[in-house]
Design brief:
Distance between the termini: 101 Å
Radius of gyration: 29 Å
Mean pLDDT: 94
Structural class: mainly alpha
Shape: rod-shaped
Number of strands: 0
Strand content: under 5%
Number of helices: 1
Amino acid sequence: MREREAQLAQAEEMLRRLRDQVAVSIERDYTKFERNQESVEVANQVVLLRQESERLAQNQLGQGPVEG
């Protein structure tokens, strides 16, 4: 009976460790996901700014030289 109780205790400890490892892994991956999502948002803002810059440059080219 004591041997079975020891095996059960060992199995419960292994289960607790596995749960802890999974929780840490999920937290790490979620943090990585959030960072990547923020990077995508920044990249999208850069694209929008470059598009606006290109539009302004095209407008300036279309107006020709400024006379003074």
